[in-house]
Amino acid sequence: MTLAFTHDTLAQRIRFGSGEAAASLSAEVAEQGWTRAMVIAAPAESELAGAVTDGLPVAHVHDDVVMHVPVAVAERARRAAAEHRADVLISIGGGSTTGLAKAVALTTGLPIVAVPTTYAGSEATNVWGLTEESTKTTGVDAKVLPRTVVYDASLMLSLPVDLSVASGLNALAHCVDSMWSPRTDPIDQALAAEGIRALDAGLPRIVADPSDLKGREQALYGAYLAAVAFASAGSGLHHKICHVLGGRYDLPHAPTHAVVLPHVLALNGPAAPEADDRIARAFGSVDGLTGLQDLRRRLDAPRALRDYGFEESQVPDAARAVLPAVPPDNPATVTPDVLEDLLHRAWEGAEPR
Ligand code: NAD
């Protein structure tokens, strides 16, 4: 097979070390000479944020964080950054918190240091997202890529098992979708395969023992690789579906990904044998779907969108909204009927086919 591709690697420093977040942040702030940090952390993460930013020159702590970054929430955070003359944004939290920092960076150009506390992976991408009137808009801008990411798996010890599973499967979705996304290349696929291996190793350990730091580290490492692959490869069918579901019906991000993923893999896997083979090898299974379903069983993964507020009556509307966003080069042919069937199965928690 001929190898020919163009790959952009995003410039970002990664500091990875359990129990090292405070020291890493302090080293970053000292090195860059920042003097007015705006810390962004949701109320639920405020204690954790306080612990890792203790001693830093913090000008303002902003806790007005809402999932999917509504425009009004972004505007309030931008005003706060200006009022407090922030020179750096330190985001501590999940994808919603990182997303808010990105919304501020988008219009102000302020640098971000991201301290993720879930496996969402937003910190490793140059993708921003904003929601207005039930429509989620995403875009790509170099300004929103965090300059540094501080990965500290000990900050994940408080993440409940169900959230860890859903978030870990959200990361796994980045890997799987990266195998056939519009800009995928062999580097993305190598990163995605190693991401699957690490998540498959780490997540069951977390379910068996939520305080297993080694399991948390594996999952976090896998989530980072997943996000790097996704940032380069772009959104495939899976992400197009989940973006519509999240923005239009306000469904929770991570569980939505966790539920939809096997249905997209069942559809695309047979139409993309090379990608499916890579996924299978990463899982150590006979095919991609078998590997994913084995993992999902071990994790007792989310099964049905109806458990997260999606109504059966919304299926046709969702299918119509997803259709125009389907990537033209998606491996399997996607007709309105195929989409409706997929979404209906995801709604009821049926076996994927
Ligand atoms: P989230 O940030 O909303 O967090 C989910 C819940 O987990 C929240 O209630 C939060 O308080 C809690 N939580 C977070 N860390 C915790 C911890 N360590 N201990 C206890 N509780 C904790 O959800 P998410 O799934 O991390 O992120 C979803 C958002 O990220 C969505 O808006 C999605 O679109 C965005 N996202 C963006 C990208 C990108 O590249 N731009 C990539 C992935 C996700």
Give your account of this protein's structure.
With 353 residues, the protein is α/β, with parallel strands linked by helices. It has two domains: 13-156, Rossmann fold; 161-348, Up-down Bundle (Dehydroquinate synthase-like, alpha domain). It is built from 13 helices and eight strands. The chain has helices at 21-32, 46-53, 71-83, 95-108, 161-178, 186-208, 213-233, 237-249, 253-268, 273-283, 288-299, 315-322, 336-348; strands at residues 13-16, 37-40, 58-62, 88-93, 112-116, 127-132, 135-140, 148-151. Strand 6 (127-132) and strand 7 (135-140) form a beta hairpin. The mean pLDDT is 97. It binds nicotinamide-adenine-dinucleotide. Nicotinamide-adenine-dinucleotide (NAD) binds next to helix 4, strand 6, helix 5 and helix 9. Nicotinamide-adenine-dinucleotide binds next to helix 4, strand 6, helix 5 and helix 9. Pfam families: ADH_Fe_C, Fe-ADH. Belongs to the iron-containing alcohol dehydrogenase family.
Give a quick summary of the entry.
Keywords: NAD, Oxidoreductase. The protein is of the alpha/beta class and 353 residues long.
Which secondary structure elements does this structure contain, and how are they paired or packed?
Layout (H helix, E strand, L loop, with lengths): L12 E4 L4 H12 L4 E4 L5 H8 L4 E5 L8 H13 L4 E6 L1 H14 L3 E5 L10 E6 L2 E6 L7 E4 L9 H18 L7 H23 L4 H21 L3 H13 L3 H16 L4 H11 L4 H12 L15 H8 L13 H13 L5
Parallel strand pairs: 1-8, 2-3, 2-4, 4-5, 5-8
Antiparallel strand pairs: 6-7
Helix pairs in contact: 3-4, 5-6, 5-7, 5-9, 6-7, 6-10, 8-9, 9-13, 10-11, 12-13
Bound molecules: nicotinamide-adenine-dinucleotide.
